[in-house]
C-alpha cells in the first residue's frame, strides 16, 4: 500500500512539475561537475533514458486528451506510471554531481502529436512513442549495460531493461490489435 501511495504521489508530483513540452525550446542535457566526470557512454545513457521517459510521460498526457480509444488510454496510463518510476530510479542511480534532465522530451515529436486527434493520434502515438520509442530505449539500455562505466547506472539499466522490453511488447500487441504496422 505504501508503494502504491508513493507511486501515486510521485506521479502527481511529476505531473505538477511538468512544464508544457511546447514551451521548452531546447532539451536539457545530462551534465556533470569537474569533481565527478562521467564517461561519455554513461552521459549518453542518462541523456537517452531521461529523454525517453520524459517523452513517454508527456505523450501519455496527450493521449488522455487526444485519444478516444480505451486501449490506447490504458497503455498511456501504464506508460505514465512506469516512466515516472523509472525517472526516479535514474535520478537515484546518478552519481553525486550528475544532473539528470527534468523536462527532456522530444519537443518535435510532442508537437506533432499535439496536432492530432482520435485515430490519427492513436496511429502516430502507437508508432512513434510505443514502437519506435521503446525500440530505441531498449537499445540505449542494452548499450549502457554493455559499455557503461558507472556501476550504479549499469545496475539501474539492468534493473529497468525488463520493464522497457515489456513496454515494447505491449506496444507491439497494441499495434497488432489496432492494425498499426511497425
UniProtKB/TrEMBL annotation:
Keywords tagged on the record: Signal
Domain DUF4142: start-end pairs: 41-174
Residues spanning the membrane: none
Signal peptide: 1-25
KW Signal (keyword) present: yes
UniProt xrefs under Pfam families: DUF4142
Designated name of the protein: Predicted outer membrane protein
Amino acid at each position: 500500500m505504501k508503494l502504491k501511495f508513493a507511486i501515486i504521489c510521485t506521479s502527481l508530483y511529476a505531473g505538477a512539475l511538468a512544464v508544457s513540452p511546447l514551451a521548452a525550446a531546447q532539451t536539457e542535457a545530462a551534465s556533470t561537475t569537474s569533481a565527478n566526470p562521467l564517461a561519455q557512454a554513461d552521459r549518453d545513457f542518462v541523456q537517452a533514458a531521461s529523454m525517453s521517459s520524459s517523452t513517454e510521460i508527456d505523450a501519455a498526457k496527450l493521449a488522455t486528451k487526444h485519444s478516444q480509444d480505451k486501449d490506447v488510454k490504458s497503455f498511456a496510463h501504464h506508460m505514465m506510471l512506469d516512466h515516472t518510476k523509472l525517472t526516479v530510479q535514474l535520478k537515484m542511480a546518478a552519481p553525486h554531481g550528475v544532473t539528470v534532465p527534468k523536462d527532456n522530451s522530444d519537443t518535435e515529436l510532442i508537437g506533432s502529436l499535439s496536432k492530432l486527434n482520435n485515430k490519427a493520434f492513436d496511429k502516430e502515438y502507437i508508432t512513434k512513442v510505443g514502437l519506435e520509442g521503446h525500440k530505441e530505449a531498449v537499445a540505449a539500455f542494452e548499450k549502457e549495460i554493455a559499455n557503461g562505466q558507472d556501476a550504479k547506472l549499469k545496475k539501474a539499466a539492468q534493473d529497468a531493461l525488463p520493464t522497457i522490453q515489456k513496454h515494447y511488447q505491449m506496444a507491439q500487441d497494441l499495434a497488432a490489435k489496432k492494425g498499426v504496422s511497425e
